Structure formats: C-alpha cells, structure tokens
Amino acid sequence: MTEYTCKKCSSFLPEKASFCPFCGSRQTSSDKPQKTKSRGNGQGTAKKRGKTWTAIITVGYTLEGNAIRRSKGGFKTKKEALEYIPILRENKPALIKTSSLQDIWAVYETSSFVKLSKSKQTHYRTAKRRLERIFNFNIKDLGIADLQNIVDTEVETYYPAKDMRDLLSILYERAIAEQLVTVNLAKYIVLPELNETETVPFTEKEILKLWEDYSNGFIPTGYFLLMIYTGMMPGELLRLRPEMIDIQKRVITGCGIKTKKRKETAIVIPEIIIPLIETLLQSSTKDRFYPDVRDSFYSYFSEMIKRTNCNNALRPYSCRHTTATLLANKNISPAIIQEAMRHAKITTTQRYIHINTDILQNAIQSAVNTLK
Q: According to the model, what pLDDT value does residue 30 have?
C-alpha cells in the first residue's frame, strides 16, 4: 500500500486525502486564487456576530478539509475577543465519561453552567441537590415515571419543580448531543399548578407605622423605607456601596441590576429620606451599604411586619410596588412614574400600580358628575 505524506508537515496521510488533518494544508493543486489571511494560520480570529464579537480558533481538520473550530462569544470589542484566544486554546472541552446524570452534570457544570447568573446557578444547584437520588443512574435506564416521581416527592410548588425540570432538560439535551439518548424525557414532566399571588403594596397608614418603628430605634427599618421612597429592588440594596450614593446631587448610581435601563438610570433620592440615608451610612461598611448578610435582610423584614402589625401578605418586593402606587395615587404622570421605576416599557410600570379603591371610586364619581 502506497504511503502518502503531507507536503507541508510530512505527517502520514490517508490515501487521496485532499487536506492534511494535522496542519490543514491543501494536498492537491488548485487553480483558484487563495484568499489572503489577515492573521497567521493557527493564531485564531475574531468575528462580529450581531452586537458582540466571537473568538474563534481552529483545532483540526476533517479529511475533506473542513475546519473543526472552538469559539466563545459575548465580547464587547474585537480586541477583547482576540485577547481571549490563548485561553480558548487551553480550555479543552470536557468529555462525558459515562452515561450517568452525575457525569453529564459534571461536564455541564464546567462549561455552560458557569456562564449563568449567580441567581440561576443557585436555583440549579438546589435542583441538583433535590435530584441526587437519581443522579448515579444511567440516563438510558430512567423513564418518565422515575422523573415525575422524584419531582412530585421532593417539591410541592411550581417554581422549585420547574427548576428541577429545566435542569433535567438541559442534561437530556446534552446527552442527546452526545448520542447517549434520543429523546428529552424531561419535557414530559407535569408541574404543580401555579398559584400566583398578587404583590400588594404598603398602604399610607402602614408606611407611617414603619416611620414610627424607625423613630423608636429600630434603625434597620430604614432600609425598607429607603426602598419605598426610591423604588429600589432588594437585590439593588444588597449590592449598593456607600460610594454609589451622592447626597449632594440626590442620586444613587451603579447598583442597578437585570435590565440595561435600570443599570443606566440613576435612582433619585427624595429630600425626605436624606437624614435617614445619613443615619444608615453610619452603620455601613466600606464595601456594603447594607452591612449584614442577605438572609438577615429577609428575616428582619418578617420581624418588622409582625412588630408593626402590617399586612402579612407584604414582601420586600412590595416596597417597589409601593413606589409606583404612591406616585400614581398622587396623579403623577405615567411617563414620570416609568422613569422613576426605571422601566423600559410603560406596560411594565402598569403592573406595579395598585389603585386605591377609595381613589378609584372618587375618580369614577367625578367622571359621572360631569355627565349630569
């Protein structure tokens, strides 16, 4: 049998190979002019996809000459994408060793999982813990009844069950890509009924109770008053740093989360809460305006609601709903309320407004009177 070697790297090649699978060089002559490359072979490149740049490297070639590539996207500039190429070259993709859910998870955990938000990572780790009883099973041996049973026995409410189903679905899709299974059984899991409870805002009487509680020496109540008067989200308060607060300009910048609008729009500080903020700053640390851990924030809220005898249905996120509702009840323009809430769409703002029944009745009565 005749042996063929690459014209460029001298590696042994399969018979009649058009391209070298080791260096990628063409083995047969071609009359077509070769396109000049802006970067040397093997150095990687960057391509713009939509609004972001993607780093791309070639890790090999098929016998037909098709490049086998590895990539990572999401970079804001071409320079950032090119600078990531050495890291991309070192990060070799993990391999699934067996067909167990545990091994499929291990691969996912070191790849796509790390790109998720911290909140989503926490949800999936909790879901994974609830699925532990089946994680050492071969995915091929699991049936729909097995998946449904573990969801039904571990949780009773919609969202935790959905996290379990979503995580299983991700693992099944990866297993399908690896040709371990052919069907995503997780999508057949039936979730508990979703019982959505509407978020209720604080009433004006309840806000006065919080001010009284704060005046009586329960200083942490001030954090919730701050949220009520600014529309700040719980997550924004917990990531707020003292240097983000400009009392002279009466704005807070840099703590916005989730959406571009909230990240870019400053939070306005009403004059009435400036003394309150100055008091809270005395308890802050260099890195955190709220000095304690996240769990204490929620437990203190529950204690405050009981102590002030406020509505048991109130939640920390009720503070943000209260902001929009207070402004609406004072006949503030919807456009101004939208800006204060830092919403990109007015339809989102409308979901935060809870019109007081008395105000609604008075408005209807006023409208009716004009028809007489």
A: 47
Q: Structure pTM?
A: 0.55
3-state SS string for 119-154: HHHHHHHHHHHHCHHHCCCEHHHCCHHHHHHHHHHH
What is the rounded CA–CA span in Å between residue 100 and residue 138? Answer: 4
DSSP string, 212-253: HHHHTT-TTHHHHHHHHHH---HHHHHH--GGGEETTTTEE-
- What is the spatial distance between Cα 146 and Cα 150, in angstroms, rounded to a whole number? 6
Q: Are 338 and 259 in contact (CB under 8 A)?
A: no
CA distance 337 to 345: 11
Domains of the chain listed by start with CATH number: 4-29+36-74 (no CATH), 101-188 (1.10.150.130), 204-357 (1.10.443.10)
Q: Which two structure tokens, joined as six digits, stand for 14?
A: 């399969």
The pLDDT score that the predictor gives to residue 1 is 46
Place of tokens 């929620």: 298
C-alpha closest to that of 330 among 353, 311, 348: 353
Which residue from 329, 24, 62, 125 is spatially nearest to 207, judged by alpha carbons?
A: 329
pLDDT of res. 352: 94
Low-confidence ranges of the chain (pLDDT < 50): 1, 30-34, 36-37, 63
C-alpha 75/C-alpha 18 separation (Å) is 35
User: What is the Cα–Cα distance from 76 to 79, expressed in whole angstroms?
Assistant: 9
Mention every residue, 6+ apart, whose C-beta is less than 8 A from residue 221: 210, 213, 214, 304
Residue 72's φ and ψ, nearest 5 degrees, are -145, 125
pLDDT of residue 258: 84
pLDDT at 178: 80
Distance CA 254, CA 78 (A): 26
Which tokens go with 162? 């959905």
Contacts of 182 (CB under 8 A, 6+ apart): 176
End-to-end CA distance of the chain: 105
Q: At what angle do helices 158-177 and 101-109 cross, to 10 degrees?
A: 90
Q: What is the signed CA dihedral for 232, 118, 85, 76, rounded to 10 degrees? A: -20
Q: Which helix (H) or strand (E) holds 88?
A: helix 78-90
